[in-house]
Amino acid sequence: MPTNESARATPKKLFTALIQDASQKRQKIQSISGELGARIKNAVEEANLNRAAFSLCRRLYDMEEDKRNDFLRSEDQQAEADAAHVQQNIDRLNGGIKAPSEEEAREFDDATAAKPSRRNRPRADDGEASGSYSVKS
């Protein structure tokens, strides 16, 4: 028997049997995955299943109990922080949004979608012709 590791080879029969077995099992896995995918797709379309929620539930179902409990605890904390952040943004938006004045409402008419022209607005006269620039020292 050769002592050199690189000179050792896997027996041809064993290698061929492993390739065939792996191929057969992969085909079975693909078939099962296709069937499951079709069932999930049907449930999404016909039974109003939320695919993302289902995926999360499946992952939780497969977790070990201590990891699942840790995940759920962390998720609760994150949801509370997110809810507070969302409420803060809503409060900020509500405080900053104001109804347009009558003049602003006349400038932009939603019915005709006529946007006011910026060309007709009076400019501050700084003594320079339009398009010219000078450096002041």
Defining traits:
137 residues, mainly alpha, 62% helix
Helix content: 55-70%
Give helix and strand order, one letter per element, not per position: HHHH
Number of strands: 0
Radius of gyration: 34 Å
> How many DSSP helices?
4
Secondary-structure class:
mainly alpha
Which regions are unreliable across 5 or more consecutive residues at pLDDT < 50? none
Overall residue-averaged pLDDT value: 80
Report on this model:
The chain is mostly helical and 137 residues long. It has a domain at 14-90. It is 62% helix and 0% strand. It contains four helices and no strands. The longest helix has 35 residues, at 12-46. It is elongated, with a radius of gyration of 34 Å. The model has no long low-confidence stretch (mean pLDDT 80).
Outline of the structure:
This protein has 137 residues and is mainly alpha-helical. The chain has 4 helices and no strands.
List the helices and strands and how they pair.
Elements: H1 12-46, H2 51-62, H3 65-96, H4 102-107
